[in-house]
Amino acid sequence: MEGTMFARGLKRKCWDGDEDVEGAPAAPSYSLQRQSLLDMSLVKLQLCHTLVEPNLCRSVLIANTVRQIQEEMTQDGAWQLPAPPVAGRGPLDHLVSTEILCRAAWEQQGQRPAPDLPSELPGALGAPAPGSAQSCIWEADSSRGHRGSFPKSLDQIFETLESRAPSPVEGLFADAGGPYYDLDAVLTGMVGGKSGPGGGDGLQALAPAGAPPPSASCKRDLGELDHVVEILVET
Amino acid sequence: MPSHRVPSEADIISTVEFNHTGELLATGDKGGRVVIFQREPESKSAPRSQGEYDVYSTFQSHEPEFDYLKSLEIEEKINKIKWLPQQNAAHSLLSTNDKTIKLWKITERDKRPEGYNLKDEEGKLKDLSTVTSLQVPVLKPMDLMVEVSPRRVFANGHTYHINSISVNSDCETYMSADDLRINLWHLAITDRSFNIVDIKPANMEDLTEVITASEFHPHHCNLFVYSSSKGSLRLCDMRAAALCDKHSKLFEEPEDPSNRSFFSEIISSVSDVKFSHSGRYMLTRDYLTVKVWDLNMEARPIETYQVHEYLRSKLCSLYENDCIFDKFECAWNGSDSVIMTGAYNNFFRMFDRNTKRDVTLEASRESSKPRAVLKPRRVCVGGKRRRDDISVDSLDFTKKILHTAWHPAENIIAIAATNNLYIFQDKVNSEMH
Question: Which residues form the SERTA domain (chain A) (predicted)?
């Protein structure tokens, strides 16, 4: 695969795009390449075929890349809902054309549409599909995508519960012994004031196995603890 | 490992580490095994085997586990091995996978007691009527036996994947770092650890940066450094606060705006950080460069060396095939004058900080026979091409040298090339080509 990628890249470089490479059209626009990179990134974030927890560093870096692309697209006024992620690989030249994205910013001048919108981002970034791709990743790290009993929003419940942990001093002496998910502690509420691996993370370890839905805001009003216990018991 | 075994994925070497004298070299692999090599003493009677490394011991350090609650496998792959300074006849090392750190004790047995009064050679009780006199058992030499036993298991300290362990110069404590937290352990206490760094945001949606590597200062037991996926280094002082979320120093190079692309952040992510032996400098590796930092200067590195700048125009393809996320390690030589790191196509690079010369060498059976001199390699990027040059497009990106180690005092290096270990020794003064 790598050989193919680079062979094509080299041809394009050497032949200056005058000659068609195997009948492929001339280099697509910067916008199309950027979109292609965005699609590729979203696919990468959602591929969780292995039984092992995905690499968190890789997921964070890809998510940051997605965010950068989205910010730029918003500035350019080119923002649109991304195409549904391609299940397999796109056409080869579609991917190869993104070589141009590797070039430094100054090389892109004159190719990018001039930004004509103020760079206010929050509203645009709240758009469902990319937002959810971003918010789904970390939960994918601690939950699995193919068992569907827990609703995704339980993640947020656990996260908020964990953040209500007690003073840092106690956290320093977190008891690392024993299983770090204590079902009793979770069901009775606040994990007895423990934070760190012995306690709070126990909640996260119990984070749902539900597949993250592609849409939906991820904030949820917590209200009562009873509500949480009710959900756990019901499921 | 026996040479007739068919290499499998379990044999892929995942870490390499010399001990403090360089007498022992430990490797860990994807199958959870540790192999320790020992350097044979140089002897006049066998001048050809001058200080070569032979297998000393092999043991299974970690087994695959299954986390039933998360329905996830926990890999047995050994991420890091660190030796403890030797304090008696035994050797000790720490080995870790993604979740659990283990302390192993390695002892030698080369004598055994013989001449028991009540038991015979096989340990069976003697018929008392045959015992006519008492004797004192004596120690007789036997074939060397190396025994490895697990002394401590440090479990349940990490929710995320452990990427680094580092033994403190106080020889009593060590740290373990995962993507979001760093814990401090006492070597004798397994049921408790102190959390000293925690960068987990209250809301995981806000997570944009992770810890990539961490190391204690070689001399100051209160100082440690950790690197991040955004390319920054944080030097922390444990005396300043119990929770070292506030760094003492932040080392960060401002981004070059002319080189900015969508991949800028990814290639700035630091994959490894190592203090110099002197303790005065730090060495970092990011995707395209190695950098030397002076602890007294936070604004920028004092030296930057290009490892494979020719890949800059290929970043998109490398992102697509995930190679851009490869984590290369880096190493200092004993005198901190030369630095080394791996690359693709089984190439590794060395940079002489004094002469500013660098060399590319290859670790492969085809290009190096025992005792032959390694030939420098060159990657050509178009333009004039010499006879043995390799073009960028012919590089094999599946052959990556991620793990390298340098003997603490001598010019001996250990290179892990997938499932093969190469040990190169330099008998004359090394000269960079």
Answer: 30-77
Would you say A134 and B206 are in contact if contact means Cβ atoms under 8 Å apart? no
Nearest to A197 among B156, B260, B261 (CB): B156
Interface touch A2/B194, C-beta < 8 Å = no
Of residues A73 and A22, the one with the higher pLDDT is A73
pTM (2 d.p.): 0.73
pLDDT at position A76, please? 82
With CB atoms and an 8 Å threshold, state whether A99 touches B398.
Answer: no
The predicted pLDDT at position A186 comes to: 35
Q: Which residues of chain B have pLDDT under 50?
A: 1-2, 429-433
Which chain B residues have a beta carbon less than 8 Å from that of A173?
Answer: 192, 194
* Residue of A53, A75, A101 for testing the chain B interface, max B β-carbons within 10 Å: A53
What is the C-alpha to C-alpha distance for residues A196 and B23, in angstroms, rounded to an integer? Answer: 39
| Cα B214 to Cα B296: distance, rounded to the nearest angstrom | 19
Q: Tens of pLDDT along A168-184?
A: 333 333 344 334 333 33
Q: What is residue B244's predicted lDDT score, i.e. its pLDDT?
A: 77
Domain containing residue A56: 28-76
| Number of structural domains in chain A | 1
pLDDT tens per residue, range A67-108: 999 999 998 876 655 545 554 444 443 344 444 455 444 344
Contact B199, B247 (CB under 8 A): no
Question: 3-state SS string over chain A?
Answer: CHHHHHHHHHHHHHCCCCCCCCCCCCCCCHHHHHHHHHHHHHHHHHCCCCCECCCHHHHHHHHHHHHHHHHHHHHHCCCCCCCCCCCCCCCHHHHHHHHHHHCCHHHHCCCCCCCCCCCCCHHHHCCHHHHHHHHHHHHHHHCCCCCCCCCCCHHHHHHHHHHCCCCHHHHHCCECCCCCCCHHHHHCCCHHHCCCCCCHHHHHHCCCCCCCCCCCCCCCCCCCHHHHHHHHHHC
The distance of Cα B117 from the centroid of its chain, to the nearest Å, equals 49
Residue A66 resides in a domain? yes
Contact B191 A177 (CB under 8 A): yes
| pLDDT of the residue at A46 | 82
B228 vs A contacts (CB less than 8 Å): none
Contact yes or no for B229 and A57 at CB 8 A? yes
Of A40, A139, A205, the CB nearest to B320: A40
Using an 8 Å Cβ cutoff, are B292 and B282 in contact?
yes
3-class DSSP state of B60: strand
Q: Is residue A218 part of a domain?
A: no
3-state secondary structure of B206: helix
The whole-chain average pLDDT of chain A stands at 51
For B360, other C-beta atoms within 10 Å of its C-beta total 20
For residue A192, being part of any structural domain is answered with: no
Per residue in B187-219, pLDDT (tens digit) is: 999 999 999 999 999 999 999 999 999 999 999
| Mean of per-residue pLDDT scores for chain B | 92
Partner residue facing B72 (CB), from A53, A98, A178:
A53
Q: Name chain A contacts of B260, Cβ cutoff 8 Å.
A: 104-105
pLDDT tens for each residue of A180-225: 333 333 333 333 333 434 444 443 434 344 444 433 333 344 444 4
